[in-house]
Amino acid sequence: MILDPTSFFWIFAAFAAAISAMGFYCMLMTYNLLRVLIGLEILMKGVTLFVVASGYLVGQTAIGQGIIITVIIIEVVVMIVAAGIILGFQKEYDSLNVKNTRSMQG
Amino acid sequence: MKLLLILLIMMFFAAMWAVMTSLILRAAIALALTSMILTTIMFQLNAPYAAVFELSVCAGLIPVIFISVISLAHRLPIKEYLKRRENRINRFWILPFIAIAIVVLIGIVRLPLGLNVAAVEKITDVREVLWNLKRLEIFGQIIVLLAGAYGVLILFKERNRDS
After folding, report:
1. Domain containing B91 — which CATH number?
2. What CATH number does the domain containing A83 carry?
3. In this prediction, does ipTM exceed 0.85?
4. List of chain B residues with pLDDT < 70
5. Which end is more exposed in chain B, N or C (fewer Cβ atoms within 10 Å of the end residue's Cβ)?
């Protein structure tokens, strides 16, 4: 099925791409580890928006919802583990600056 | 359609606020707001199960995790904070222009991206997708959840030992 260029899908695609780009830019340009996580979350919101709009457009909302539930579960596990690692990092270096990771062994 | 467009614009500005604000606590609140608006969009697009997950987990649990981490992290001295805020404005002033350019290029100019969708069998019930079509994935998700719980246990165990 080729997507109709006049459909409302393109508006969703535009906003999803812009929100994903914001998250990606935030991850690239920031030095704070917590902000990297916030950027990752924003990136995931853009992807989720794209999936839900695609599912609605092709009438496959059930498959779209299944994918979104999987994404949310993985996202929450990543966030919890990353938050634990950030706390450990903060305790070790007394800072959340990404530049400090250069002095880590390994 | 008008309501959806308004919600999309609100979500765009909430995400922008989360990225641009200089206080991390405000960024966490803006993230929760983005999730809430996404939940409303999901309800509008006939995805209620995903919307409930999004509302409870992404708008409820994840901001709580962020706020816990922020409260446990050390506070910056005010001079350092002001210096970083200025640096932040220098690094992020271009972002609104990039985001608006992307919306215009894809949403209005409609670049020929050649997107297409494969035709698959139509399934209307989300339970059928989760328990029949994606059965293997459910086991994978359970393993990931257990791995996450184990990781948190290890992290807190080491912290207790250190203290």
Report:
1. 1.20.120.1200
2. 1.10.287.3510
3. yes
4. 111-121, 155-156, 158-163
5. C
